[in-house]
Amino acid sequence: MQSQIRHVPSGIILDLSRPDLGHPDGHAIIEAHYHDCHRDRPPFECVKHLGGTNPGMYLKKIHGAWWAVHFQAGPCQNQRIPGPMSDEHKRQAEYWVRAAEDAGYRAETELTLPTGTRPDVLIHGPVVTGVEVQRSAMTRIGAVRRTRNAAQAGVLDVWFTDKGAYPRWAFRVPTLGQQPQSWHYLPPRRAVLANGLRAFNAVKCMPGNLPACPKGGGWCGQPHLKVEPRVLVLDEVASRVPAGDIVALRIGAMSGAAAGVYLFPAKSVSLYKDLTGKPPELAFDPHTEDRRRQEPYGRVECRNPQQAAGGAFGVSCGACDRQFHTERAFRSHQVAGWDGRPVCPESQARYPLPPRRPVSR
Length: 361
Known about the structure:
By secondary structure, the protein is of the alpha+beta class. The chain folds into three domains: about 5-80, no CATH class; about 85-290, no CATH class; about 295-360, no CATH class. About 20% of the residues lie in helices and about 25% in strands. It has seven helices and 20 strands. The protein has helices at about 25-30, 85-100, 140-150, 235-240, 265-275, 285-295, 325-335; strands at about 5, 15, 45, 55-60, 65-70, 80, 105-110, 120-125, 130-135, 155-160, 175-180, 195-205, 225-235, 245-250, 260-265, 280, 315, 325, 335, 340-345. The protein has a seven-stranded mixed β-sheet with strand order 7-8-9-10-11-12-13, sandwiched between helices. A six-stranded antiparallel β-sheet has the order 2-1-3-4-5-6, with helices on one face. Strands 15-14-16 form a three-stranded antiparallel β-sheet. A hairpin with a 5-residue loop joins strand 19 (about 335) and strand 20. The longest helix has 16 residues, at about 85-100.
């Protein structure tokens, strides 16, 4: 399988599609080689290596997650290593699975998608839904990237956190929090309340309903959109998102909410269209993502490393055509775009960067 690597000293094969890596000492082997990076004596090698002569791999932390990375780039993809799952994490994933199965959907855990991402729970419904139970640190860039990769595989990723305060990636991706709940045991059905959802409401433009008229000037008395928070039983979310009854929308700053990605009831889409005359933007829609990648203007995503002409190992940037001798130099050349993708700093920005805030002294 493509998701298997071999520990060279012992010959043990680790299955990266399984939480326990398919071996009782799997995570201990990984931890022992976090800083072992010798091209001539690789600690791991790709079981199904395609192209090139060096199947060796080393471990690298990328956006909060550990990856097995090839020394020599080629057709083979790098592989994300699943971290050890805590008991609380297991109970939260089990709660999602139980809620989805109670709604009549098939649910799987730790299934690797064709794009390489691996949701904690995958719910098979009219809208295939991935659930990311995130208890450990994750960067905003990493969360956006994983959600985009899931979208390219036709999966809507929903991120669930049990932290008291929302993490930094919250509402850059479809986000759910929870009302206070202990996970020292598996809660009974319909015992967990989820927050972070939003809904559109039509309110009359008058003092007390809105801070100001969205059109500017005085109060116009016409109905305008207002975003209001919603709290649902988590079991309902697990049934309504796969059914398409809850959708992820990307909205700008408006009354009641900051700009970001939120989960809305599907009927909010109709209300938005009725009052604005246009549909809202679906967040992480695979068709929208494809169009953005094909736009003629904007930042150009750096291509995957390729073997240089003449057989010598090298890396070329697809945006500026610069050649790099090593993969490390190539990655140092990249910068993170506004949406989390690695891009060439010399390409034109697709969207203007936000203005820099003045530093108070």
